[in-house]
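Table S5 (text form). Sequence records supplied for joint modeling of the two-component complex.
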Amino acid sequence: MASFAGVDFFKTDDLLSEEERAVRDTVRAWVDDKLVPVIGEAYTQRRFPKELVPQMAELGMFGANMPEKYGCAELNNVAYGLIMQELERGDSGVRSFASVQSALVMYPILAFGSEEQRTHWLPKLAAGEVIGCFGLTEPDFGSDPGGMITRAVKDGDWWVINGTKMWITNGSTAGVAIIWAQTGELNDSKTISGFIVETERDGFSAKDQQGKLSLLASDTSELSLQDVRVPAENQLPDAMGLKHPLMCLNQARYGIAWGAVGAAMACYDEALSYAKNRVQFQRPIAGYQIQQVRLVEMLTEITKAQLLCLQLGRLKDKGALHHTQVSLAKRNNVNMATEVAREARRLLGANGILAEYQSMRHMANLESVYTYEGTHDIHGLIIGEEITGLSAIT
Amino acid sequence: MNIIVCVKRVPDSETRIKISEDGVSIDPAGVKFVLNPYDEFAIEEALVLKERAGAGTVAVMTLGGEEAKETLRTALAMGADTAVLLKGAPSPDGLGTAEKLADAISGREYDLILFGKQGIDDDNLQVPAMVAELLGLPCATVVVDLQIDGERVRAKREVEGGHEVAEFDLPGVISAQKGLNEPRYASLKGIMMAKKKPLEEVEVGDAAARVEIKELMPPAERAVGEILGEGPAAVPELVRRLREEAKAL
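The corresponding structure-token record, covering 643 residues in total, follows.
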């Protein structure tokens, strides 16, 4: 398989620093060499390619934008975004793995944990020695996580947690879970708190979500907690209130905005190369107007999304990012990528439905990405409230 | 074990090369430059040898302009300890480049000098052997396996249709062929550390150019391929084309 040359119609590479490009190129080469050759088969076997985790850790992909003293690479957020872009160029499921490990497990420990929790967990998570998952969503509480019914009740020096968490990426693979639970009255979003729960604790179980038609190369599970007892020191001391898990999601969404561009780039690249080689009526189909315009639409949307990501990253590095900007980028870019993937699949004709090609896999994956980490619609309402001052949700 | 690895900045093999208007150079606009892929084998070997020895340094060296620092930093990100930029214009004359490198190397401490077997841009395969000659050192080129026991070097080389094993005592020069090892990726931490590692700059002037490039020509355009179908269903048409159009059957 030829290495990926990138999609850069507007010379956005010139806006990256040497280190940012070096990080991107390293991950790009790794994705070409190690992920792309195995992902089609892993996907049809419905298997997360877990054997890649040690390599991802050795390269430093987990918590890459976190401090060196915890074993991380301490990259800026643009470089972190470029990692997510390249991983999702390979597969949304593999990017999801890295997003969860970094933004939903390492980030809350870094941001809301004690120094003991940080020094204990972060180096292990960065090294891939421990895999983490994040339990917020419940069977009946998706877009409305504040309504959660998972409870944590104090019993002396212990917390006792009961509840069910659903759609949990890495759920069955994880050695540790960040579990969000209600410590006060139901529907009081200010008393939701976070707990570090080792998955080997009694009463904790995970089962694979059956019947998925998307993210097949990803572990998606349901978690059940029945009288799971964790020591008081496993509570994240600085996370009291729904705002804190939402801050984690905001980190993950930032990576998704970049990742979606990667998936779109993979589909465009595949469609362009196929169109130039596929001959019908004695000439390459790339010579026909309908396919040219189709390709140009893809390239135009990808280019716009690339510029959006870059400015988003620069704002984040300056500490000037507003969460509604992340919402806009996630919403736009994932929607864009689902459209690009669908058009690429169509351009590929019958071949487009095969796992040997990438576009339909990306297309199916992106339906999940469209829905998770704040659905397309919910992000619309978040931005809508920001610009009108009127909440359409509550 | 102190090792010097000489590297080169070359256009990425995926890059579309355009010839400049002067007809004798390539247009660098829009060209992505990378560390010469054969040099990656040389760097990997150096890092492994140093790790095995448990002591020593790996220094990378190149001849070029300011832009070549990026290439050196790629090598530093892989794990090299220090870098030396010989500031001056490289030349199509392999000997000119070799003279600059040999001058800079003599007077430095080294046990081994490593190169990639060739730059993928000019494909001359000249510089490693020339540097060895200029420094009066033994040399083995196009090496696919390297064993070092004390001072004794045992290098397995690719020769036409087979292999040859050469031995010599350190110090010496080795040029690396694909297959010598699997180069590591620069880790993300390594990339961040690279800019903190020492990068020495030495003004050496332009390399002598006794060889002059008179003309550059692109290869003939390759005809667009055609997908005749998938799997066994494509075979009858493929056979028909091979028989009737290509006359290969």
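Note: The longest strand of chain B covers residues 139-149.
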